[in-house]
Amino acid sequence: MPKMTFIERNGQAKEVEAPLGLSVLEVAHKHGVDIEGACEGSLACSTCHVIVDPAWFPKLSKPTEDEEDMLDLAFGLEKTSRLGCQIVISEALDGLVVKLPSSVRNASK
Ligand code: FES
Q1: Among positive and negative, which fits the CA dihedral 66, 67, 70, 71?
Q2: Is residue 92 within 6 Å of ligand 1 at its C-beta?
């Protein structure tokens, strides 16, 4: 099974199993990684914002316009920012590394 690594807000790396077909958000939830995902993947929030390791960024499929629009609302946006619910684990992403942003805009506040 593919694996991926989350760099948590305290800088600690957490390597977890990442089943094919799950989104990075779903993988995070499965392993208790603190990514909110308020809209559960329907592109209506930016709380699933993650910063993709620059080495991995080019391997991801391009974000849709809707994803880019939502990303514009995320705090701490970086060049390799993506929405975690839009990255789907495939064999090609075995080893993916993403970092949690230091803060998120909570949809409910
Ligand atoms: S969970 Fe809301 S956009 Fe990803």
Answers
A1: negative
A2: no
What lies within 8 Å, CB to CB, of 89 at 6+ separation is 2, 4, 18, 19, 20, 21, 22, 23, 24, 27, 96
What is the reported pTM? 0.92
12 close to 18: Cβ distance less than 8 angstroms: no
- DSSP letter at 24? H
Task: Find the distance separating the first CA and the last CA of the chain, reported in whole Å.
Answer: 37
pLDDT tens digits for range 66-91: 999 999 999 899 999 999 999 999 99
The whole-angstrom separation of Cα 59 and Cα 98 is 13
Mutate to test the pocket of ligand 1, among 24, 50, 85 (most ligand atoms within 8 A of CB): 85
- The token pair that represents 76 in the structure block: 């701490």
How far does the centroid of ligand 1 lie from the alpha carbon of residue 16, in Å? Answer: 21
